[in-house]
Amino acid sequence: MWASNLASVLNRVVNPLALVNCYIGAMAMVAMVLWVVIDVTSRAILNKALQGSVDITGLLLVIVFFSGYAYAQVKGKHIQVDVLVERLTRTARQVVVTNGLLLTIGIAVILFWQFFRQAEFLRSGNVFTGALHIPEWPFLIVTAFFMIVFTLALLNSFLTELAELVHLQGIKSYLWLSLGIILALGLFVGSIWPYLLPFEIAKETWGLIIITLLFILIFLKVHIGACMALSSLFGLSYLVSADAGLTNLGMTSLRIAHTYTWSVVPLFMWMGLLIYYGKFARDLYDVAYKWIGQVPGGLASASVAACAGLSAVTGDGLTGVLSVSPVALPEMKAYRYDPKLSTGSICAASTIGVLIPPSLPFIIYGMLTRVSIGKLFIAGIFPGILFTLILVGMITLMCSMNPKLGPAGPRATWRERILSIKGVWGVALLILLVIGGLYTGTFTPTEAGAIGAFGALVIGTIRGGLKLRGFIDSTLEAIQLTSAIMFIFVFANALGVFLSITGLPYRLAEWITSLGLSAYGLISLILLIYVILGCLMNALPAVILTLPIFFPVVISAGFDPVWFGVLIVVMVQLGTVTPPIGMVVFAMAGIATDVPMYSIFKGVIPFWIAFLVLVIILVLFPQISLFLPNLM
Based on the number of CB atoms within 10 Å of its own CB, is 48 exposed (0-12), middle (13-18) or buried (19 or more)? Predict the structure, then answer.
């Protein structure tokens, strides 16, 4: 079949190119880390900063953000919502996915065109960086090349899905494809020539239409970044002009990618992956196992404590699952722990990863709201510790009431406990570097990320856990994950430009205020909305979509923005263990292959009580979150 054959040929071209792109991004990220580390060291020793650090970091960041688009597509790591599509028949699902890829290809082509236009504009205008006078246009040419490879990767996926559709439907598949092409062309024609619409629509109404279109596309499993880009283009073109819509996509993407403070995303991401590949988790689990393994459910509690220790240096829930599970699950299985408790406790414990700094959701929240990322990081420390104690207490109580869930492990001697501590020197040093540097103001969040990544690299190598293969895999995975996240965020900002013009967020904020709810009633409503959204989509895009609406309302009600940030992060993590999405549960299912996914979800359900207890405590006692930030 022609589509299958063409996909096979294209696959042999795209896969190596996507990998090369990712290697280019990985080298840019490593260079960025080394530059920041040298700059910090020069300031500390010679009291002299390197000239042009912001220039160098900003240019390298453009490469880092866009280099992994194609690789993430090849690996199937771009964020999509399949909760609705997976419930369709096989044929209907294939039709939806195939036509959704057509829309994403169209967006990728437009982005290539816009990046190339911006490069030509910078070249003809002789635009250079501020301090080092480096021409910027060559870096945009490189990003335009990245978009070409991304387009080819999407085309390869499209042909693969089309071949499957033809296999299922034969000649009918071309009818479905024709309908998809007509729909895609209709959307893009409407985006570029919006005056063809036969009627005039008010700004607020048009905003609601575009938001509805956005969610329809998201739930049809179109790439979330592409959904936001298309909605922004279609919406702004009608309200302003087609050129404004197109320019907004290119300019907003490059402005976000060129922003120095956004370098914290790949740096902390890489640090967490280096810790994972450096096998730091085994020693952390060993220490926790020696100290609390002898209490009822002690092995599960030890997993919670190990996840908390990893949280202080990774800031990522998946890292906790991936690092602790291979160590803890065999131990709990050997002691006949209930599989629901063993998997559910690790899933719940992994959510601590974004409370104790560093934390990607805190970074996203800080960038969207312009709240200090450093204060947000510090604000998560006490809630993270509190949540750890709540989880350990809940496990102990459950296993005391029903010892069959998790019997006590062997008791270690005091000598064994004390000797085990020496194994966590690497984690302790990283905590001192990252959190200590942030709290004292020695490092900016970007510098803390670079120092943390460099420290994890050095310590992991010294400990012998990090090998060359792990180093390479960690860099490639960091680029892939960063690109998947930023594909959403840069176009969420483009969509934000359109929404601000419609005035819709302000109208919705006025409507919520008009409900006459008390301050805590308002907070309860917002948190309930996040629980519902967490059941339907990945938590991070849910926050990106809704925060521009909710944040002004919360601030006008007199709540502290740092405290609200902590609450939002708790709700984000609740979404990662909430069916039917539950990304952390999916990751666990990939590791604990002998435990059915419904059993893992069932095991997580009791820990919802722990989340509710944490939220209630944080709402009633905001100083738990605000005490340390107020001391900075």
Answer: exposed
Token output for 86: 């997976």
Other Cβ atoms closer than 10 A to 88? 16
Distance CA 599, CA 589 (A): 10
Residues contacting 218, CB < 8 A, separation 6+: 81, 224, 227, 537, 541
Q: Mark the ranges of the chain whose per-residue pLDDT is less than 50.
A: none
Enter the tokens of residue 53: 């650090």
- Dist. CA 310–CA 314, nearest whole Å: 6
Structural contact between residues 306 and 347, judged by C-beta atoms closer than 8 angstroms: no
Cβ-proximal residues to 394 (8 Å cutoff; 6+ apart), any chain? 606, 607, 609, 610
How far is residue 39's CA from residue 263's CA, in Å, rounded to a whole number? 15
pLDDT averaged over every residue in the chain: 81
Give yes or no for a contact between 180 and 96, defined as CB atoms under 8 angstroms apart: no
Q: Is 135 helix (H, G, I), strand (E, B) or coil?
A: strand
Element (H, E) at 78: none
Interacting residues of 376 by C-beta distance below 8 A, sequence separation 6+:
357, 359, 362, 365, 366, 562, 565, 566, 629
**313, two tokens:** 């240096």
Task: Please give the C-alpha separations between residue 171 and each of 23, 160, 360, 500, in angstroms, as whole numbers.
Answer: 41, 17, 47, 46
User: Residues near 451 by Cβ (< 8 Å), separated by ≥ 6?
Assistant: 36, 37, 40, 433, 434, 437, 443
Q: What is the per-residue pLDDT across 336-349, written as a single tens digit (0 to 9) for each?
A: 888 888 888 888 88
Instruction: Write the pLDDT tens digit of every residue in 166-217.
Output: 777 666 667 776 777 777 777 666 666 666 666 677 788 888 888 888 888 8
* The two structure tokens encoding residue 112: 């290539």
Q: What is the pTM of this model?
A: 0.80
Residue owning tokens 């002998």: 594
* Cα torsion 155, 160, 163, 167: sign: negative
- Element spanning 134, H or E: none
Give the residue among 103, 392, 420 at the shortest CA–CA distance from 286.
Answer: 420
CA distance 238 to 216: 19
End-to-end CA distance of the chain: 65
Q: Phi and psi for 174 in degrees, rounded to 5?
A: -70, -30
Max Cα-Cα span within the chain: 81
Residue 1 DSSP SS3: coil
